Amino acid sequence: MIGAAGSSMITIEKLCASLEGFGLKHASKRLADLLNQLEGGVFTPRQFLLAMLEAESKGRNEKRRHRNYAGAHFPPNVKGLEEFDPAELESGITTGQIKQLAELGWLDTFSNLVFAGPPGLGKTMIALGLGVRAIDEGYIVCFEKMDSLVRTLDKADVERSAGFRLKNINKANLLIIDEVGYTPISRNQANKFYLLISDIYERSSIIVTTNKEVPDWVEVMGDPVLTTAILDRILHHSRCFSFKGESYRLKYPDVFS
Q: What is the rounded CA–CA span in Å between residue 94 and residue 57?
């Protein structure tokens, strides 16, 4: 048993080293402050222990969030959902629907979201906002523009970085595919895209933003049979939102200049 004199010889440095030896690096950083509060009577021993565990948990979660955010490959300057104003649209999505989507219940049922409509109406902004919210809640997210995703699929077998990215996409809880329909793809690319969608079907969620209405996707994919197979998997367990209105870029040119 260690007495008062013995305990006073146990330095903060030694305690921190022991904590780090067990992998408790975040708790180690808070140890000195929390010990001072314990010795000052602010904490009971049980409260001190809980505070140490919470410090470690919070630190790990924040580190995981930073790692997942970097791995998502979001574009720069992502805006939060609270900055989107549905009143700017003629129709398509309401404030209540955005709040409901932000609860992320659809992610737990592997459901998909499709945001369709002309450019400049905020489809990507909402998709990214939901992606950030998902990362904050501990989900793994990948963001890809359609042309970038197709290039990754083309190179995955021969280029290490593309293969690594495809593995991450397959492990993600949420895949955001932006700008489907802006550029036609070949039949071979459509087939690879179909295989990806089939691989993650009913084990991950997908958000698609597109300037094409669903019946017009065959113009992009080129093959009616493949297009039907792709849509069958994306639209099963999905909610579709058709945006209508004037482009934000045209309405507020000074903001986007």
A: 36
Tokens 């809640």 map to which residue?
137
Is 68:140 a contact under the CB 8 Å cutoff?
A: yes
Cα–Cα distance measured from residue 28 to residue 52, given in angstroms and rounded to the nearest whole number: 8
Query: Is the distance from CB of 129 to CB of 85 less than 8 angstroms?
Result: no
5 token code pair: 């004199």
pLDDT band at 256 (very low <50, low <70, confident <90, very high): very low
For 136-170, the pLDDT digits (tens) are 999 999 999 999 999 999 999 999 999 999 999 99
Domain count for the chain, please give it: 2
Domain that holds residue 136: 81-256
3-state DSSP call for residue 91?
Answer: strand
Which of 25, 41, 72 is the endpoint of a domain? 72
Question: Are residues 146 and 234 both part of a single domain?
Answer: yes
